[in-house]
Hints:
Blueprint: E1 2-7, H1 11-23, E2 27-33, H2 36-40, E3 48-51, E4 54-55, E5 58-59, H3 60-68, E6 75-80, H4 83-92, E7 97-100, H5 105-116, H6 126-132, H7 141-148, H8 153-160, H9 164-178
Parallel strand pairs: 1-2, 1-3, 3-6, 6-7
Antiparallel strand pairs: 4-5
Amino acid sequence: MTAVLCVDDHPALRAGVVSVLRRAVGITRCDAVDSADEAMNWAPSPDVVLVDYRLANGDGLRLCHAFKRRQPAPAVLMYSAHARDLALPARLAGADGVLAKTTPAPELVEAIQSVARGERVFGSLAEDVVRAGSCVTPEDLPLLAMLADGATPDEVAGVMRIEPAAVERRVHRIIDQLKPSTVA
Length: 184
C-alpha cells in the first residue's frame, strides 16, 4: 500500500491527480501541496512524491534532491509537460523516474507503484549522457556517467576518491547546466 504526496502549483492538475490516485487500487493516501516549502514540511511521510519541475517557489529538481537526502527517503517521480528534457537532470537529482503529464492515468498509477517497489521509471539515458558530454567539463564526465548509470553520490565519491561534498557541488553544477529553462 502506497502513500503519495503530489507537489504541483497548478490547482486543476493537483485536483485531477488526487482524484485519480485516491480511487486507485494500492494507493492508501494521496495528499497534495502547491509549493516546495509545504512539501518539505509535510508531516506524514509519503512513500512516493510526485513532483512537477516548475514550482512557484522553487524547482522540482532541488526538491527531489532534498527529499532523497531524507532518512528514509521516499521514491520521487518527476512529472512534467517536458519529461524528455528532464530525464537526465532528474536522474542526477536522485529521482526514481520521470513521466510526462500526458501519461494516461493507469500508466501514472503503475509508475507510482513501480517506484514504490524500488524500480526505476526511465527510458535509456545513454543518448542524453552523450549530448550532455558537450556541456560538462571533462573531469565531470565520469561522474555524470556513473550517476546516470545509477551509482549513488557516495559510491561516486569512493570511486573518484573525492569528498562526498565535492560530488554534491559538482552534481548541482551539472544539474544547473542541464536543466531545461522552458519546462513547465
